[in-house]
């Protein structure tokens, strides 16, 4: 591609690789030139080999493997390994990985005192962001981010401890005693045990529900340069430790436009109340009065492939739990939206959050825990990008520029004269 600056007549020819061209080309024309790109709609912030999202064709692959195959044949811990290290583990590698994660699920006893400091009705995402950041104070060696062994140790700790922190936050919110990890259980079965065990000596989750949660975690594990992953990379680029970087990513995920959408979908379905009210709600959306939560995506301009798999998983869960009364409203919303020009013109389809909330609710999770589940699942994705960032020779501290539109120079006026 040749770019010509008509002010000077100077031109520069740049290669186009992977639908991108280097912004350095602009500085060859005029070193003060900057790309103005609010919200980075047309900016490739890095080169990555972790996840491919093809929005036009509704394709999602982790390290080249189609999400449909991973959801069908793999499990969450194996997908964590794949995202982090680039290859599916051998049997021995998987056994070692599973042992590492299983034996690092406990948190320092002092963490319970942090959680005790919150109000009884503290949102579990607020608790999670805080306690993940607090973990950095227990592992000062995590600051040595260029020590390979330390990096590996913190990665294992974070993946292993997120469910424990999440379960503690939930148990605190309902006034129940914390349940410690049960290392004889699988990753998701242990999480369900820490959430739901009461007086019984051992909690055996329904295998169909434990598997459904494992599939949901696989589907949420990574999604290239989304908002929260960009937060992870931004904080990681300053060479902060992985705990505070993960806390920043959790904070980004908390927003209702990102990971908070699954909770907002249920609020929306409850507000609609019945199938009869769906057409009127759709009209309000088309007037711009409100949004169809769980619909639309910055990258997917067709059906989010994860939403398709989640829809199938919902049927498996509902066989155990009974069908969610809100499903009928959700199906009607989807049916009308997919045939209405307002949504078709804007390429708005169900995204990962549209049906996931119905499953979580049917499994007994309170609404406030939905984004926490997303955070547990996305942790390996955040950490894979953190690792990739540290190994990327092009990495520098993230420091974008701006288009200044503020006041010209002016002189200070004393308060008596204002
Ligand atoms: C996730 O990035 C990722 O990969 C995220 C994620 C991941 O795995 O990390 O996939 C997870 O965050 C999924 C998205 C969850 N969020 C929601 O479901 C919230 C509702 N969706 C939207 O707010 C919106 O679609 C976004 C935030 C997801 C994307 O917004 P964009 O790309 O910034 O698009 P936009 O807001 O500029 O909207 C473009 C047009 C606008 O109409 P016009 O002003 O041009 O007339 O589409 C309209 C918007 O009003 N629009 C919607 C809509 N989403 C966009 N109208 C109604 N309902 C919606 N949901």
Give a brief outline of the structure.
This protein has about 425 residues and is mainly alpha-helical. The chain is built from 18 helices and 5 strands.
The hetero molecules present are: s-citryldethia Coenzyme A
| Name given to the CATH homologous superfamily of the largest domain | Citrate Synthase, domain 1
The number of helical segments is 18
Distance between the termini: 54 Å
Number of domains: 2
The gyration radius over C-alpha positions equals: 23 Å
Strand content: under 5%
- Name the structural class: mainly alpha
Major sheet: size, sense and barrel closure? 3 strands, antiparallel
Principal-axis shape: globular
* Order of secondary-structure elements: EEHEEEHHHHHHHHHHHHHHHHH
**What ranges have pLDDT less than 50 throughout 5 or more consecutive residues?**
none
Instruction: Name the CATH class of the largest domain.
Output: Mainly Alpha
- Total number of strands: 5
- Overall helicity: 40-55%
Quote the average pLDDT: 95
* Order of neighbouring strands in the sheet with most strands: 3-4-5
CATH topology of the largest domain: Citrate Synthase, domain 1
Explain this structure:
The chain is mainly alpha-helical and 418 residues long. It has two domains: 1-44, no CATH class; 104-392, Orthogonal Bundle (Citrate Synthase, domain 1), CATH 1.10.580. 51% of the residues lie in helices and 4% in strands. The chain has 18 helices and five strands. Strands 3-4-5 form a three-stranded antiparallel sheet. A two-stranded antiparallel ribbon has the order 1-2. Strand 3 (51-54) and strand 4 form a beta hairpin. It is globular. The model has no long low-confidence stretch (mean pLDDT 95). Bound molecules: s-citryldethia Coenzyme A. S-citryldethia Coenzyme A (SDX) binds next to helix 17.
